[in-house]
Amino acid sequence: MSSTHKDMITWGMMLRKLPSIVKALPRVVKGLKVANVKQPDQPCGLAFTFEQATQRNPEGPALLHGTVSLSYAQANQWANRIAHHLHAQGIGKGDVVGIFIENRPELLVTVLAVAKLGAISAMLNTSQTQQALVHSVNLVNPVAIVVGGELVEAYSAIRDRVSIDAARTWWVADQDTSRDPGQVPAGFINLMRVSADGSSENPLSSQQVYLDDPCFYIYTSGTTGLPKAGVFKHGRWMRSSASFGMIALDMAPGDIVYCTLPLYHATGLCVCWGSAINGASGFAIRRKFSASQFWNDVRKYRATTIGYVGELCRYLIDQPACADDRDNPVVKMVGNGLRPGVWSEFKQRFGINHICELYAASDGNIGFTNILNFDNTIGFSLMSWELVEYAHDGCAPIRNSKGFMQKVGKGREGLLLARIDDKAPLDGYTDPQKTAKVVLHDVFEKGDRYFNTGDLLRNIGFGHAQFVDRLGDTYRWKGENVSTTEVENILLQHPHIAEAVAYGVEIHNTNGRAGMAAITPAESLATLDFGELLSFARAQMPAYAVPLFLRVKVKMETTGTFKYQKTRLKDEAFDPGKTGDDPVYAWLPGSDTYVQVTEQVLADIHGGKFRY
Q1: N or C: which end of the chain has fewer CB within 10 A?
Q2: Is residue 27 included in any domain, yes or no?
Q3: Inter-residue contact 142 to 98 (CB < 8 Å)
């Protein structure tokens, strides 16, 4: 997110917000009370809050998908039947259950059922296959797994490489199973059929889930390779759902949230669904995002709120303008990654009043929210945070002669650090060693501890910030964090590639960074079949991780410590005028091979001829 002088927040801007601040104070106080769960034996969390929402709005819509509309009472009773069956099969508090289902009501009622038992849902990325999926499953040692019918093929391909009892390998038909549980394939158990006769009463275990109990494992690419499992506890879920649903968005039973984001990510699962539950509001979902059908769905569901990431908004802006663009019930939206160039245009074209831009990480301890509805900001955080100087080459924070880190001034960008204390504990990862790597000690004084977010922010005044960029070995594309190490490891499995360096590069008028890889052939350029190479990459990694550009190098330059010079590679990107003798190839939208980037192809890419 770029910054200009007009993005700085002034006293005048704050004074103009005073009426809305005064109006919001009662709900802020109430929200903070709900969010600030302190007693270790106080019931809280996802199931507890959903059951409260059911009492507040039993006949109101809870889950909507296609022609399916479930009230809070119906969804809660369905989840209860599943929970009682899982309990009868030995699933209890602290057990991990893998969830491998695409966006649909069955995913959410299953997650809710697991939460009612105090068990932990491992939210497997439905784009993953092969080694990445094996790693994600084995990383958390689940005692059971629930597989959607749409993903049976992907799971069956790795089933013999994970240790999950067949008696606890449940299947959910790819259809409306509230009406018909379907016919189960061999080797699986039909979860919806075997749980159909279970009790629909709330299990007692819902009242025995507390703030320090894990709710989800949400996977993140990280900076060192394969996905890490971030721990998301019920206490944090309470803070998240209250902060967005009550304080920022003022959700109520008459609201409907429309979400097309993948529900294995925290923005969809915790922010969007959590906001809806907190307000006893409806939650409408779609299997996958569709730009052409987005506003039709919004009108069909009468959605007042939409969940977004920056890429989603750009795709909607790219759609042909229609006379009824502003004819929609949406008044507020919540998400992250909206660029300044799209922000104002989106609000004006679609008649949106409040953009609740946020910043958070599923593996972190801090969140920012644009509660006051300023433009081009992630808002402010009630947690303690600082921006510090960092080394551009190594991406590490810099310490001064006294051994402490140096804060940056207002208007400047710096590395975001979040203080770790009782108010903002760090749940971290399932692997304590990985958690230790992101904790900094003795940052500003002896004994303090801070979480290193690895992200660059800019302080624009009055506690507000702008997101600038991500550091480290990850980049963001199509709303997903991509690990360069993982991409490199897959490319190196190809018999004709000897070395590979992956990184993200910018394409004009797109969000995030597109994947690019510099590769050294095992023999010569002539041995590379670029159609076959693309097919290999697409078969081995999710679509968003497949490099859009390849740079072929005879020899890879390294530093004196044998590190690849990624900074230079990023700067030269896919411009053949900068890459010298290294030919560059591009995977153009709609094609099935990489083609060489000429000056004309480069001009077409920059000119927007191709839609990424």
Answers
A1: C
A2: no
A3: yes
Which residues 6+ apart lie within 8 Å of 199 measured at CB?
80, 81, 84
Q: Which of 356-365, 474-483, 596-605 has the highest mean pLDDT?
A: 596-605
Residue 357's nearest CA partner among 340, 378, 339, 342 is: 378
Amino acid occupying residue 203: P
Under 8 Å CB-to-CB from 177, ≥6 apart: which residues? Answer: 106, 192
- Number of helices (H) and strands (E), helices first, in the chain? 19, 28
> What are 569-609's pLDDT values in tens digits?
999 999 999 999 999 999 999 999 999 999 999 999 999 89
| Three-state secondary structure call for residue 19 | helix
Domain carrying residue 330: 36-363
Count of the separate structural domains present in the chain: 2
User: Residue 285 and residue 278: Cα distance in Å, rounded?
Assistant: 17
Question: Are 127 and 269 found together in one domain?
Answer: yes
- Asked whether residue 443 is assigned to any structural domain, the reply reads no
Q: Tell me whether residue 428 is in a domain.
A: no
Q: Per DSSP, what are the bridge partners of residue 282?
A: 256
Inside any domain, residue 258: yes
The model's pLDDT over 115-128, given as tens digits with 9 standing for 90+, comes to 999 999 999 999 88
Is residue 495 located within the same domain as residue 356? no
Last residue of some domain: 300, 333, 363?
363
> What is the token pair recorded at 464?
């507000």
Q: List the CATH number of the domain containing 279.
A: 3.40.50.12780
Strands in 584-587's sheet, in edge-to-edge order, are: 497-505, 514-521, 549-552, 584-587, 594-596
* Closest C-alpha among 50, 533, 10 to residue 277: 50
DSSP bridge pairs for 507:
none
